[in-house]
């Protein structure tokens, strides 16, 4: 087998991406090309067993549960109560609704864990109100997309679960490690929004700060929703349930809250909830299947080891290597959907960083924050597409408005990359 032949599936994969073929089908087609035409020593039946065995992993059961949580949340009144609470906290500031947008994504992250779900929900609920209050539509779209990058970094983000499986690290550790980076991303975005809002004279969403009694009232209504992520973390911390069981418990809690407390969830909503869950789970699982089989091909040809050796030959300095990897991830994130990029690149890059003593949990946070930034970045950022399509914003206008917000997120990424102690503070504490 010629040395060049083993890289044909990778070239084919990127060609299919550029032709706008769905990610899952691009991965599967590239993998099957290898097993059918390049390496026919492995029976196709064995390859097909890989397709099936890939999704037989017990921890992957957490994914449909948490996707279902995000769907139930929208029907159960959780989103509306969190929005009211966020507005009472910060709506009186200059650019109040833009701040509420960021704060709502942060509060929602612990429940939905999906960037695209958060971007779509806020585009429909909060963005129309922002434009009604005088915010420019492209700026509204930029804030909505940038803030949605926070959601998957806070547990129970699906990417946190997937990385833990790929890197063979504790899901619990990944969950705990997500909080500090997420709050830093929120703070950086809110500081940037404050400067822009002051310059453009965007008005607050409320003339006067909410009274203590009013805030307490909104907080009381939001408590059931806010307790869900903390209940999940504490339950896993004390060994009451596994991450997979936590997903089922989160579904149960959201359902009880929607029925018994907010009383907005109805029996007839479950047809739509199940449909959305099946659609979301199917798309994620197909990507995982395709990426795992593609990873099987790369493992057979020892491509991850070759990439690790190449990176280490470029530099044996940990700081320089992390900078190179960040640049690579940002470029890849511009063209490939975040989850798929992580599944493809983690097995390639992990051996190199472990060789230089980088903590795998720290590296996981770097990857996840990086690919979330990629989701807001042109030309193919998934959250960018979601927001621009719903709000009908031209991409060129979106790019102009999102630039300062991207700069804020990239600054946070650099701090997280080179300050391991900050990322690992909570995991080490617990």
Automatic annotation (TrEMBL):
Main localization (coarse): membrane
Subcellular location(s) per record: Cell inner membrane
Chain ranges of the TRAP C4-dicarboxylate transport system permease DctM subunit domain: 10-420
PANTHER family: 2,3-DIKETO-L-GULONATE TRAP TRANSPORTER LARGE PERMEASE PROTEIN YIAN (PTHR33362:SF4), SIALIC ACID TRAP TRANSPORTER PERMEASE PROTEIN SIAT-RELATED (PTHR33362)
Function of the molecule: Part of the tripartite ATP-independent periplasmic (TRAP) transport system.
Membrane topology: Multi-pass membrane protein
Keyword flag Transmembrane helix: yes
Gene Ontology CC entries for this record: plasma membrane
Protein name per UniProt: TRAP transporter large permease protein
TM stretches of this protein: 6-37, 58-78, 98-117, 137-167, 173-197, 218-240, 246-265, 277-299, 319-336, 364-391, 403-426
Similarity-based family: Belongs to the TRAP transporter large permease family.
InterPro entries reported for this sequence: DctM, TRAP_DctM
Assembly with partners or alone: The complex comprises the extracytoplasmic solute receptor protein and the two transmembrane proteins.
GO molecular function: transmembrane transporter activity
């Amino acid at each position: 087998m010629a040395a060049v032949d083993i890289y044909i599936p990778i070239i084919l994969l990127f060609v299919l991406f550029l032709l706008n073929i769905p990610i899952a089908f691009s991965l599967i087609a590239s993998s099957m090309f290898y097993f059918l035409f390049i390496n026919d020593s492995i029976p196709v039946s064995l390859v097909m067993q890989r397709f099936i065995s890939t999704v037989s992993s017990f921890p992957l059961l957490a994914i449909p549960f948490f996707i279902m949580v995000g769907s139930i949340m929208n029907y159960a009144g959780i989103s509306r109560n969190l929005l009211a609470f966020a507005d009472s906290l910060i709506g009186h500031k200059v650019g109040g609704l833009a701040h509420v947008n960021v704060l709502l994504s942060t509060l929602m992250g612990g429940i939905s864990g999906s960037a695209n779900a958060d971007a779509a929900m806020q585009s429909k609920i909060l963005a129309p109100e922002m434009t009604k209050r005088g915010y420019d539509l492209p700026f509204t779209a930029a804030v909505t997309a940038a803030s949605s990058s926070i959601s998957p970094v806070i547990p129970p983000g699906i990417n946190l679960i997937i990385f833990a499986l790929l890197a063979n690290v504790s899901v619990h550790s990944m969950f705990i490690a997500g909080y500090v980076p997420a709050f830093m991303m929120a703070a950086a975005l809110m500081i940037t929004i404050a400067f822009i809002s002051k310059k453009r004279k965007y008005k607050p969403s409320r003339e006067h700060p909410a009274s203590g009694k009013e805030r307490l009232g909104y907080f009381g209504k939001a408590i059931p929703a806010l307790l869900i992520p903390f209940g999940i973390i504490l339950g896993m911390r004390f060994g009451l349930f596994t991450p997979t069981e936590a997903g089922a418990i989160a579904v149960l809690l959201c359902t009880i809250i929607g029925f018994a407390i907010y009383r907005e969830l109805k029996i007839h909503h479950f047809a739509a909830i199940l449909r959305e869950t099946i659609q979301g789970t199917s798309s994620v699982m197909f990507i995982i299947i395709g990426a795992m089989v593609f990873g099987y091909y790369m493992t057979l040809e020892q491509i991850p080891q070759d990439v690790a050796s190449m990176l280490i030959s470029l530099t044996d300095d940990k700081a320089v290597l992390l900078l190179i990897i960040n640049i690579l991830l940002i470029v890849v994130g511009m063209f490939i959907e975040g989850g798929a990029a992580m599944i493809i690149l983690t097995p390639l890059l992990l051996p190199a960083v472990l060789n230089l003593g980088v903590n795998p949990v720290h590296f996981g946070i770097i990857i996840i924050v990086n690919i979330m930034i990629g989701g807001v970045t042109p030309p193919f950022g998934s959250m960018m597409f979601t927001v621009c399509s719903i709000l009908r914003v031209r991409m060129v206008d979106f790019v102009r408005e999102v630039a300062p917000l991207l700069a804020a997120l990239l600054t946070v990424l650099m701090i997280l990359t080179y300050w391991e102690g900050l990322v690992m503070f909570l995991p080490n504490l617990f």
